[in-house]
Design brief:
This protein has 96 residues and is mainly α. It has a domain of 29 residues. Helix content is 80%, strand content 0%. The longest helix is centred in the last third of the chain and has 55 residues.
């Protein structure tokens, strides 16, 4: 009787222990994005960047000129161009 009970418990333990790791398996799927950069798309991207930086520089120059004259306009243009570049980097990374 002891041998039957012991062999049943060992068999059940082995059966349960082999089933548990099967539930812990996880699968991770990585998406591979492929970017097809055509000449027009690359050109359009550069034009968009130049437009954003240029608008930022013009706005900064206008505000700087109103606040501090010629030197303020130059400083404002530099600050506006930097802000435009940061905005462009933010918009480019959006959605990734």
């Amino acid at each position: 009787m002891k041998k039957l009970l012991l062999s049943t418990m060992i068999g059940a333990g082995l059966l349960v222990s082999t089933a548990v790791p099967g539930q812990a398996v996880t699968y991770r799927h990585q998406q591979q994005r492929r970017y097809y950069a055509h000449k027009r798309a690359v050109h359009r991207r550069h034009v968009r960047t130049a437009k954003r930086v240029g608008i930022g520089a013009a706005g900064g120059a206008a505000i700087g000129a109103l606040a501090g004259g010629g030197k303020g306009g130059a400083i404002g243009a530099i600050a506006g161009a930097g802000a435009g570049a940061l905005y462009d980097a933010h918009k480019r990374s959006q959605g990734r």
